[in-house]
From TrEMBL:
Organism: Cymbomonas tetramitiformis
PANTHER family: LONG-CHAIN-ALCOHOL O-FATTY-ACYLTRANSFERASE 3-RELATED, OS04G0481900 PROTEIN
InterPro entries from the UniProt entry: Wax_synthase
GO BP of this protein: lipid metabolic process
Entry keywords, A to Z: Membrane, Transmembrane, Transmembrane helix
Entry annotated with the keyword Transmembrane helix: yes
Listed name of the protein: Uncharacterized protein
TM ranges: 28-47, 54-78, 122-141
Amino acid sequence: MSIAAAISGLCLAAACWTRCIQSSFPAGWTRVLLTAPVVALFQYLPVHFQAEDVLLVVLLSACLSWWATFKVIAMGLGRGPLRTSMTMPQYAVALLLPVTVDTGKRRCGSSLPSDGMQSSSLLLSFIAKGGLLSAIVYVLTSFSLSDMTRHLLYGVPPLGSAPSRPSAM
């Protein structure tokens, strides 16, 4: 059995465990303590991949060590996207992947587009953002740029530059 299959099986077992804990115990510190082994497992699993699999390690670390861990802790405290009304596959996907299940409720002031927004304007916005991203990638890969220009295009401050502080009035 490969290491990836073993990790997948452990992740599914952890999802089953958290689902059982959620349906058996009320929200609170008891539930958080009972899910502590899952949190420890999610922190431990990404280190089992080879250093050559950098992208896999980064993605697994982000999904498990960050998103899934916070979802388990939030579930323990009675918050977050994990619900007992979900089926087991829905629960596992909501826990192990960086997705949020739509509950059908919209909050006031949400960033979702209004019903009046046309799909053509959404498509135009998507095309414009894709074009801008393509242009930035082209400039970064095709030209020999100074460090300052490269950092500006990356969107990060260059090393050694102190963040500016607003002046007191």
